[in-house]
Design goal:
Shape: globular
Membrane topology: Multi-pass membrane protein
Number of helices: 26
Number of strands: 0
CATH architecture: Up-down Bundle
Radius of gyration: 24 Å
Helix content: over 70%
Subcellular location: Membrane
Structural class: mainly alpha
Distance between the termini: 25 Å
Pfam families: Sugar_tr
Protein name: Major facilitator superfamily (MFS) profile domain-containing protein
Keywords: Membrane, Phosphate transport, Symport, Transmembrane, Transmembrane helix, Transport
Length: about 500
Amino acid sequence: MGLFTDAYDFFCIPPIMKLIGRMYYEDRPEPNKYEIPTGVVALMVSTTLLGTAIGQVVFGRLGDRKGRRSVYGVALMLMVLSSTGCGFSICRTRNCVLLSLGFFRFLLGLGIGGDYPLSATIMSEFANRKTRGSFIAGVFSMQGFGILASSAVTMVVCKIFWIASRNLNQDHTPEDADISWRLILMLGAIPAALTYYWRMMMPETARYTALVENNVLQAAKDMEKVLDVSMSQIAEDEPWPQDRPTYPLLSRKFFRRHGRDLFSCSLNWFLLDIVFYSSNLFQSQIYSQFLKLNDKDNVYKAAFKIARFQAIVAVCSTIPGYYFTVYFIDRVGRRKIQIMGFLFMGIVYFALGIPYHYWGQNTNGGFLFLYALTFFFANFGPNTTTFIVPAELFPARFRSTCHGISGAMGKIGALIGSLGVLWASNKKDYDRSMTIALVALGAVCLLGMVVTYVFTPETMGRSLEENENEGEDEEEDNEKRFFRCFAGANGRLNSSEAIAL
């Protein structure tokens, strides 16, 4: 539900910007009436993405220092409060509303950023190696339903206000429109708030308790709850060392062991988010000819059309792409799926961008089909795998930190890509600028395929400890003891079964 709420909060913004434009920019001269200035749109997008990048690094590090569970609750509560704050946005004058909304969207980004590394790390540390990929992908797939929910809520709210304003003057935006967008934003707090109790009742992951806190007894108690195995069946073969050797984050030893993996995860996520967020957040700019927006539409009808388009794309391509990954991730492997996704995304963006002038002059289903494929192969590809792989490659004491660093690089890429597409969509020579933008996105995808092929290791079917690549270090021997402590001589779990779990 954390990832569900993340997607809801991120992708409800395009129709909301249309509502805000109709509400606060009625006084702009033609032909820019109702259009929010490019700089304001860039500010709204940038604040959330920047907050997310900071939140991923900060909460990721706190997850390794203070524990996954407690920090997880803080991130969720921040999401709830900031979603509610976005809806209130303090005042009614244009500048004040936009500044207030930008501030609360930044705080919302911090909470969303915290949810990414902690959700992935917790799921990876609870899952077994045979189905770990499917479980993490299943968590991430809730983004698709979050996008669908944001579109559905927007359509329902707009339809209700639309019906309530039957005698609406097409040339004037009613005061009630100011309530509609606030309501859509505040409803995003509900699913997050409903899950807070269960997050707090969830035990700390046994890997963190044993490998980072060196508290094997507590880890065994937590595993007793999770696996439904009694304490009498959980025995420790060897005493756990209290002075476990370690090396600090960003040390020479860290870079020698994990620098290549951190580089690979960060760069792949950076490249993927350049493409994914620019296409998602600015669908109405790239595919404007299919939305048929015009100034004769009332305020609710315009937002309804954008939300409906997002919902159709989510149902037809986004959600199926996620569940193809859930099914194939532990059969085909992360690396192959990521390479395939980047390759097909690149091909489709070239097919969209090179003949963009033709597509703009001839509205047909072919363009929409290709557009849907970009989201299908993003989600049955790098958008999901870049979330999974960082949660599997790094040692327990660095896991959420490295996931947060990788994700933060992704959000920087999202910021660059979003501003680039926004710039292109506002050029006078629209067709030419959009051709350049879409072809550039295709080239970015092909670069991501090359980076994956050269640098990204396969993590399928291996335990987290194997993926750490600790070599013959004494530290690795200590981590193997973590598994043996759950394998009693007379218990149901033998050593091989415990390691598999």
